[in-house]
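Subject: Protein record for review, amino acid sequence with backbone structure tokens
Concerning: The relation between a protein's sequence and the shape of its backbone.
How to read it: Take the token row as a discrete description of the fold.
Enclosed: The protein record, placed directly beneath this head.
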Amino acid sequence: MQGRDGRAPAPAAYPPVTRLTVLYDDRCPLCVHVRHWLQKQRQLVPLDLVPAGSQEAVRRFPGLDHAGTFEEITVVGDRGQVYRGTAAWIVCLWALAEHRPRAHWLTTPLGRPFARATVLAAAKYRSVTAEPCGPADGRCRLPDPAGGSPG
């Protein structure tokens, strides 16, 4: 679609992200540390930090794969955007005043491998420090949205 002058419409055609929800594993020491660090930062875009798989997370995002939120960091934008893994880490940094320039760099061809390596290192650290998510089958048990027992 083009305007009268033949150019594409301005980016304002896409509504801006005004709030992000970070779903984090509250049983993971690294995840809890990052949560506290995020809370202390000056936020250009407010971050809601909600435990992954919690009743609050299920209530806010009923259509989301909540078991998957334990496998990799997940961030949900106020317009329904879902960011996972490397993109989720980058959007968290983008929301922070002092780290937005770094977030932009991490999306470049030079920065992307660094971002991916950082996420892989964090996942490895998490795998050796966090308690297993579920029973022997490795599946996460999620709370029943109706308030019953997990299942």
